[in-house]
Amino acid sequence: MSYFGMHLSLRSAPRYIGTEGIDDANRALMTHLGVSDTEEVLKNFHDMEEGKLPGHPHGHTTIASLFDPIQGYGTCHTARWESLAPFDQDWDLIKDDYAKQCMDVWKQYAPNLDPLDPMNTLIYPPTYIEKKFKNMVRGSIKQGSYMTLQMGYNRPNDACSRGYTPIEGFYVCGASTYPGGMIIGGPGYLGAKIIAEDMGIKKNW
Radius of gyration (Cα) for the chain, nearest Å? Predict the structure, then answer.
């Protein structure tokens, strides 16, 4: 399985049901939605392992422009939806319909959700990931397998896990390196740090 995602522009930031008077709840970096119980999560994973689409999508959303106003304009905001999905589907045929299903789920929690013109929406199914990044085979979301010999300080291997590589002046700083893709921004931060130190550049953070 891999990620199904959307980047889109919203007329205003989503306001979630039940958050009246709790403004911070609408400013979360990531909001998970679409799940009512553990059984539903397990059923969705079982379906995806068999190559089936989840009957009821669930995913996480981020409104980047809440934290970086440059990414928005006026009252409009940039948003992202991501959810797990099986790779082996006819995504060219079904991606628009599946995107609508995901939006319908999101609107159940944020009724004010109002995307701009579809021209401001990018839908990227698992197959898009492999087309864009040749090293993310079958939509591999972490740029490398999550297996014992490629985890922690061995990610992606002992020679490259700290950002350095055997090639002088060439660094790796993405999700394939320590501490991995789930530590958002971690590999990039560590990579920027060692590059700045090696080049004698004053760090402005």
Answer: 19
Q: Is the pTM of this model over 0.85?
A: no
What is the number of alpha carbons within 13 Å of residue 180 lying toward its C-beta?
A: 14
The CA–CA distances, whole Å, from 177 to 92, 114, 161, 163 equal 31, 37, 5, 7
Are the beta carbons of 85 and 54 closer than 8 angstroms? yes
* Helical segments of 19-160, H only: 38-49, 91-109, 126-132
* Helical spans, DSSP H, in 50-185: 91-109, 126-132
Cα(95)–Cα(9) distance, rounded to whole angstroms? 18
Token pair 């958002």: residue: 184
**For 179-199, how does the pLDDT look when each residue is reduced to its tens digit (9 = 90+)?**
776 667 788 888 899 999 999
